[in-house]
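Hey,
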Amino acid sequence: MSAFFEDPGLYRFVLENLSIGIYALDREQKVRFWNRGAEQITGYLAHEVMGQVCRESLPHCDAQGRVLAGSDCSITTTFREGRAVQSHVFTLHKEGHRLGVQIRTLPLVDGKGLTMGVAIAFEEGRADTVAEAGGALLCGCLDPVTGVSAQRLTRAVLTDSLNELQTTHHGWGLLRIHVLGLKEMVSRYGADSVAAFLRTTAQTVRHSLGAEDFLGRWGAEDFLVMLQTPSPVKVTATAELIARQISQSEVVWWGDRFRVRASVEWAIAGPDGTLDTLLGDLRPLHEPAHAAAQAGSSQG
């Protein structure tokens, strides 16, 4: 029995097959190990990243899309200081959408106490379970193209939330994200190409939201987001974040890479509105600051 657990191959097998992502870098930050969990989370197979420099092929970014380096990069910090670091970062999925991940770095130290490499464990910051997604698809609650709430459910959730405002009087924010350029893609590459842009947008938005926020499909080219805050400042800040994350997302179609483009509008839900009037109140993201302030005071 003891010999079984002394076999190094056993522990490599465990690391290879864990559902969380695990990879290891050498002193040049080249990938030397990449497990199946890392493949499933990022979409990149081991042979596509082995030997590649991590900061070039799989850079970590902050919420504004800035590549993390120096003291802002947990991997660099672990190399320099020889200590474990935990952080939330964004990376790019192979399919092009921005992916929020929780990472923990661990120094790999030799017998002399020198840091020879870094091991990184990571998992998605937000994820729906397979059981939840499967059940929702069967009942028609999820959009089969993007995996987010279907339009029928989106309308029901927003309508119920507006009705609750009659008693709670606690407003919330609404965003409409309109994906641009889909008609041009259909004319050039066919209808199937549109699904890739919608999926990428949905995944990017999902990883930009909090756990209490709601994302749903709305029409052929739109998504609606309900934010659990009545503050115009917080709503527009989230809208800015989503717009940046989408603009940094890509879709690969027949070997060509396309940037995803979208417009974002926002409004604040109050106790006296309907869904139709709320949608009519949506305003462009980059509206003058005094308009946002007036919107906030009118809801207060």
